[in-house]
Design a protein that fits this description.
The protein is mostly helical and 100 residues long. It has one domain (3-74). It contains four helices and two strands. It has a two-stranded antiparallel ribbon with strand order 1-2. The chain is globular, with a radius of gyration of 15 Å. It starts with a helix and ends in a 15-residue tail after the last helix. The mean pLDDT is 84. Bound molecules: zinc ion. Zinc ion is lined by residues 23, 25-26, 28, 73-74, 76-77.
Length: 100
């Protein structure tokens, strides 16, 4: 593995662990980092901010400051959050998957 890619992985793992290492909505905890998304609690801020910061190999202090505005979600629940937030959720409450 290239040094840069290796460092990126380390930084990403650290970021995931900083936010508790599991999805706050469903409790999913795994070593597979690709499962996780960083979700900004303030919807005015872009969710993509963390990814590029890690890609840019930014300082941990800077990354941590940004992480503190975020919660850790798995990809599924990240999508669900945005669907609820964007109010375009197609209700599937009859299936029991989501609260009505
Ligand atoms: Zn989840």
């Amino acid at each position: 593995m290239q040094q840069r890619a290796k460092h990126r992985r380390v930084l990403e793992k650290k970021a995931v662990e900083h936010l508790g290492g599991q999805c706050i909505d469903c409790g999913m905890g795994t070593d597979i980092l690709a499962v996780y998304d960083f979700h900004h609690m303030n919807s005015d801020e872009k969710d993509t901010a963390i990814g590029p910061m890690i890609d840019d190999n930014c300082k941990w202090e800077r990354l941590r400051a940004e992480l503190d505005k975020c919660v850790l979600l798995c990809a599924n629940y990240h999508r669900i959050r945005h669907a609820l937030q964007d109010d375009d959720l197609i209700h599937i409450s009859s299936s029991g998957l989501l609260p009505g």
